[in-house]
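User: Design a sequence. Structure:
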C-alpha cells in the first residue's frame, strides 16, 4: 500500500498546480488533482510555494481548514466514484450531485460522511465501515 508523507502530499498538489499553470503534461492523477485545485482558488496562496506548503501548519483551533486534507479528500472521493468502491458510492454521489446541482457540492457533503466514518473507525479500533459511509451519503441525497 502506498503511504505518502504529509510533505509528499503537499508537494504533489503544489506540483500539479504548477504543471497545469505552465501547460506541462500531467499524469491522470495529477489532472484530477489540478482540476480540484482550480475548483478551490482560495487555496492558491497555500499552493504557490512547495517549501512554504511543507512548513504550513493548520491547527484546528484557528478555524482554518487544511487545504491539503481537503484536496486529498476530493481526490479520494473522485477515485472512489470512478471505481465504485465501496460499491454503491458512485450512485449515492450522483444522486447527491443531482439534488445539489453539482458534483463539487456533493463531494463536500460526502466529505462529511467520509470524515465521520474514518473518525469512528479510529475511535473504535475497527476497520472503516463502507456501508455506513454510503448510507450517510444516500441520506443526504434524499433529504428534502
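Assistant: Done.
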Amino acid at each position: 500500500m502506498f503511504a505518502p508523507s504529509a510533505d509528499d502530499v503537499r508537494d504533489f498538489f503544489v506540483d500539479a498546480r504548477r504543471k497545469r499553470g505552465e501547460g506541462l503534461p500531467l499524469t491522470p492523477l495529477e489532472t484530477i488533482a489540478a482540476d480540484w485545485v482550480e475548483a478551490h482558488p482560495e487555496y492558491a496562496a497555500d499552493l504557490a510555494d512547495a517549501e512554504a506548503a511543507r512548513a504550513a501548519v493548520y491547527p484546528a483551533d484557528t478555524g482554518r481548514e487544511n487545504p491539503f486534507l481537503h484536496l486529498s479528500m476530493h481526490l479520494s472521493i473522485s477515485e472512489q466514484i470512478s471505481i465504485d468502491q465501496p460499491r454503491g458510492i458512485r450512485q449515492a454521489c450522483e444522486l447527491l450531485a443531482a439534488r445539489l446541482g453539482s458534483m463539487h457540492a456533493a463531494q463536500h457533503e460526502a466529505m462529511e460522511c467520509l470524515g465521520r466514518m474514518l473518525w469512528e473507525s479510529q475511535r473504535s479500533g475497527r476497520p472503516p465501515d463502507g456501508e455506513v459511509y454510503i448510507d450517510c451519503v444516500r441520506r443526504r441525497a434524499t433529504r428534502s
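The two ends are 40 Å apart (CA to CA). The mean pLDDT is 94.
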